[in-house]
From TrEMBL:
Pfam families for the chain: Yippee-Mis18
Keywords: Metal-binding, Signal, Zinc
Signal peptide: 1-20
CDD domains the record matches: CRBN_C_like
Species in which this protein is naturally found: Trichoplax adhaerens
Residues annotated as domain CULT: 25-149
Protein name: CULT domain-containing protein
Amino acid sequence: MSNLLSLCMLVIFSITWLNAKDFPIEIILCRHCGFELTNSSAVINVATDKADRTINHTKLGNTSINVQKFLNPNGQPFNVFTVKDANVKQVTEPIDQFSWFPGYSWTVVSCPKCGIHLGWLFKNISPKLRQNTITQFVGLIYDQVVSENFHVSSHVWVSITAKSLNSILIINLLSTVEIIEIAV
């Protein structure tokens, strides 16, 4: 079992080093057509108490992303992360009601190339928030975008056989490791 642990540590170190060295800034693309929208250096974590939940992700190499789950007025869930700016097309006029970010209006945005709904542009409309705050940002739907280094599977599957134990080591490309024990 100690050989398995040693191998795990080596793989974790190798993947962490690979991510930090080779993917310092990731390009964020439309999942549907590959259009370049923005990059990981534009990620900003704009928090709000309107989110049903917030989870921390590292979808873009070593960039930490707060993904917030929201429900629209019709009850449809959206997992959203925020960026300073993105190359998106505004589809609707700004709307002040039902904003997930109080003090900001929202506008539906889509991909300029394929037209798929990508998220919302949020603009500051509150005089109280205008000083020392972000004037506008884009909330991108997490499942509508991919990074330029996206792979069909976000996991590398490695089978390791130890004497009487067959383990599957699942290595997330973002350095998360999970070992599943399978009895033989």
